[in-house]
Amino acid sequence: MSELFRKIAPVVDELGDLFAGRGYEIALVGGSVRDVLLGRIGNDLDLTTSARPEAVLELIRDWADTTWTIGIDFGTVGARKGNWMLEITTYRSESYDPRSRKPEVIYGETLEGDLARRDFAVNAMALRLPGREFVDPHGGLDDLHAKVMRTPGPPEQSFDDDPLRMLRAARFASQLGFTVDPAAFAAMTAMADRIEIVSAERIRDELDKLICGDHPREGLGYLVDSGLAAHVLPELPALRLEIDEHHRHKDVYEHTLIVLEQAIDQEEGGPDRILRWAALMHDAGKPKTRRHEPGGRVSFHHHEVVGAKITKKRMAELRFPKDVVADVSRLVELHLRFHGYGTGEWTDSAVRRYVRDAGHLLEHLHKLTRADCTTRNRRKAQALSRTYDQLEERIARLAEEEELGKIRPELDGNEIQAILGVPPGPVVGRAYKFLLDLRMDEGVIGKEAAAEALRAWARENGLIS
Description:
The chain has 465 residues and is α+β, with helices and mostly antiparallel strands. Helix content is 52%, strand content 11%. The protein contains 23 helices and 13 strands. A hairpin with a 3-residue loop joins strand 8 and strand 9 (133-135). It is elongated and about 90 Å long. The N and C termini lie far apart (87 Å).
């Protein structure tokens, strides 16, 4: 135990001496203890204390490099000491009023009482400071060894106190690769509708951490199987009812999980939030576009357009940042575009449009498109991969020749006004779009040819005589 805690010893021992010297208890607690035991501790440390928040602030003001009080209403004071980020929370007990989305915070008196109100036994271990006494009243160390998420007390009481813990169970399954205790899973299933009293922001944060975990398939499985997904991400269980048009998988739900995993396999430098969410939502439009065709075939025409709208609505309701919503929904909209490429029939103009439509998401689109190939026919999969290789090669060649990512019309707004003899306004915007389309279709033709084409377009549209 001493060896495991050696890395954090300097900062926690100093803090322990500081609080003990003033007669207060303090302990390393929760996820920090769990992560130390798993050998995955970062620079964020969670501590709990008998001192009230105001006393904590007074104690650490001169010791810490920086302090903040954004969570003080919930009993938490934040601090930075060197590279360590600390959250120090007063012993507490929190629960939801059945009709409220905001938890009530009641301060506690003992470490054991604080641990009893924690979400899972693996998060209910502590290390008293400065003496480093290990405290594990609920068998968290055994659960850690067994890789299981179990509540310290009856799961029904725990989830009733804070329904978000049901989502946290699935999130930890994703992040840690743990299983959920059968009793806890049964309670999650029975109480799934209780999650609706939790704010969209807190639900978003848990879902986002789940998607970005090491084992998102496991976490998503718990959400769907328990019925929680029907309340927080209903588009996901809806896919279980839809048969893939190529009958490659049992259902679109399974196909989606495989696409997610194949997208993850292409990541570089850690979890890619935009790519993962796009992979998860790329077929969200299939349930609404499902049609039975002659011969027993099933089609999902325009599901990418419908799916983009569904994705935008869902992620906006979950209060994701606008840029994240825009990027993910755009990838969903574009994810089928490559399939019009055939075996390479696209003109250079079509390739330019593909790049321009993808914009800054081009690399994400490359990865999503490749991940979306889940056929079990090896020959077909290899053919699709080779074709996409060819497309990427064409994109690279055109980019080198034309700086494809910076394509602009050959005439700017001022030149358009001078040639057409018009003031700034909607006509200039329409002309600019015409010239951009011309640039995409024909490449660089020179300013004189572009000006002549602009005049011809303006005459055809009655803008000049």
